[in-house]
Amino acid sequence: MGRVARLPVLVIAGLVMAAAMLVPAIHAAVTGRGDIAAIFASASAVGLVAGAILALATEAPPAAAPSRGVLMTMIGVYAGLPLMAAVPFAAVQTDTGLFHAWWEMLSCLTTTGATLYDAALLPPSLHLWRATMGWLGGLFILIAAIALMAPLRVGGFEIMDRSTGADERFQRLKGAPTGAELRPGRDYAAHLADPAMRLLRWGGAILPLYLGLTLALWLGLMLAGESGFQALVRAMGTLSTSGVAARAGPVGQTGGVAAELIVAGFMLFALSRRTWPGGGELLASARLRDDPELRMAAGLILLVTVTLFFRPFLGAFEAVDPTGEPLPAADTLTGGLARAAAAAWGAAFTALSYLTTTGWTSVHWDGARAWSGLSAPGLMLAGLAIMGGGVATAAGGVKLLRVHALAMHTRRELDRTVHPASIAGGGAIQRRLRGEGAYLAFIFFMLFALSIGVTIALVSLRPVAFETATILSVAALTNTGQLAEAIPLMAVFDGSAGIAGAPWQGWAGLSVLTKSVLAAAMVAGRIETLAILALLAPAGWRTGGRAGWLR
Fold first, then answer.
1. How far apart are CA 362 and CA 346, in angstroms?
2. Neighbours of 416 (CB within 10 A)
3. Residue 235 lies in a domain
4. Are residues 401 and 390 in contact, defined by beta-carbon separation less than 8 angstroms?
């Protein structure tokens, strides 16, 4: 591992990408598509040879790696690797261009999951390649968050104080051992100028769990009735939160509610970092049931479910008017209870899926919409996607810990209004979240809102309706491409975009300029705007907290 750690991160990532091309090559060979197998095998061979040459040319002792180098490394991964992955994709799908193939691969690698292609028009091996890209993208962000962004206190880690001498104090308060193995802070001190070493060490800790969970979900979905291929793609899309699937439609289309229950259990891993190696950096409670991110997620999912479920009862008292055609009454009491339970489950599963930015719907989602009497309750899903999942997980969005910090700060300000002389308790962690953590979370919210506004303005330069531009911008910045399916969009262009399928829901029919803007938004949403600004101005960030930003 010592010699590999001497290589640039981009070279290591390129070698992994080249090796991953063997997955669709083997699948195509087994399924009788020798032409596709030859293309991916050739691309893999070329990539491995070129990577070996670059490795020999760039192998050297580790040099200084300032924070700007970390930023450029992550941008290089999201800009260069999709281009490498797009070459065999474009060679197989000959009626598409390299740009559209690059956009598709970037969408998968950033775990956005937006697609330009009709699922029925792509060969299964290309679906497997899309899922593999999404799976690798989820793995990369899990590793990079703790190996690259945590030492620099960005990407959500800025909310939790880990200043000199505070680390062990926080560990004692949380009941965790102070000598935790493979701590990012200690690794960063020992390998300050060696990001490749940190990536390899954390990769060795995260990959077995990530791979094991994927295989377990794959087996569970097959036991629920899914085919082996469909189950594998679904498992990859779940663990990476990319939402990449080999066919359109809800999760339980084949496996029913049993498959959705299994998928929902594995989506919980996108709600908190404490279930992954390196979660000790973000622990805000000693007990699982007191975890603020999990409690916040449970509250949001319950709120959406209750709102959609009890809306017909409000309509019965003429408190609200239905905006859609309500579901007709069932013939029997048992049928009515079953329909109500199905609607509640459909709302809960879909809410969990969009909160983790996976973007899948339940087989009972249409029933939940009909039950609630709402024609398009997708705005609720957009709000869930904006809030996002846990910090340093594969989920996108603002992140639940930031939402929790702002909620705690709001509650404290209200308490001070009523009781000016009150003293807040909760310990050092809670005081950090209410104070400096809430301040930094507010800055991120403002930057995120500004990013949405800028993206909408740039998308609207072309003849795109404002509603469509808003949803597409939110979907790109939250890395939830399936959001465009949940909210019906207006047709953007009638002409073909020169791709495999007809223009779909505003993604495929968009102009090259608009797609480029949305591609940049996907990368910005994945890396986070606050992290980009902090890494561009590291001196101000390292001065610490509020004083650093005000200078």
1. 5
2. 12
3. yes
4. yes
Per-residue pLDDT tens, the chain, 551 aa: give them: 567 767 888 899 999 999 999 999 999 999 999 999 999 999 999 999 999 999 888 876 555 455 567 778 888 899 889 999 999 999 999 888 899 999 999 999 999 999 998 888 899 999 999 999 999 999 999 999 988 888 878 888 888 865 434 444 444 444 444 333 344 444 444 444 577 788 888 999 999 999 999 999 999 999 999 999 999 999 999 999 999 999 888 998 888 999 999 999 999 999 999 889 988 878 888 888 889 999 999 999 999 998 888 876 665 445 455 555 555 655 666 766 787 888 889 999 999 999 999 999 999 888 887 777 766 667 888 999 999 999 999 999 999 999 999 999 998 888 888 888 877 777 778 888 888 889 999 999 999 999 999 999 999 888 777 888 888 999 999 999 998 876 655 444 343 333 333 334 458 878 899 999 999 999 999 998 877 877 676 554 444 444 344 33
Parent domain of 262: 62-551
Report if residue 5 sits inside a domain: no
Q: What is the Rg, in whole angstroms, of the alpha carbon atoms belonging to the chain?
A: 24
Distance from chain centroid for Cα 53: 33
Q: Does 33 reside within a domain?
A: no
Residue 407 CB burial class (10 angstroms; 0-12, 13-18, ≥19): middle
CA dihedral 62, 68, 71, 76 (to 10 degrees): -70
Q: What is the dihedral of CA 490, 495, 500, 505, to 10 degrees?
A: 0
What is the distance between the alpha carbons of residues 187 and 181, in angstroms, rounded to a whole number? 10
DSSP H or E stretch at residue 383: helix 378-387
List Cβ neighbours of 166 (8 Å cut-off, separation of 6 or more). Answer: none
CA 111 vs CA 31, 140, 191, 241: distances in Å: 27, 10, 29, 6
Decide: 105 and 133 in contact? Cβ < 8 Å. yes
Question: What tokens appear for 353 in the block?
Answer: 């899926």
Cα 527 to its chain centre, rounded Å, is 11
Q: Is the pTM of this model over 0.70?
A: yes
- What's the domain count of the chain? 1
| SS3 assignment, position 102 | helix
H-assigned helices in 122-279: 124-144, 166-173, 184-190, 195-223, 228-239, 252-267
DSSP class of 436: I
Asked if 461 and 518 touch (Cβ cutoff 8 Å), the reply is no
Euclidean distance between CA atoms 97 and 53, whole angstroms: 28
In the chain, the amino acid numbered 345 is W
Instruction: Identify the CA nearest to 235 among candidates 143, 360, 352.
Output: 360
Residue 143, C-beta contacts closer than 8 angstroms, at least 6 positions apart: 199, 202, 203, 206
d(CA 532, CA 314): 46
Of 413, 415, 417, 416, nearest in space to 438 by CA: 413
- Cα distance between residue 188 and residue 178, in whole Å: 17
Residue 45 lies in a domain: no
Kindly report the CA angle at 116 between 115 and 118, in degrees rounded to 5?
A: 90
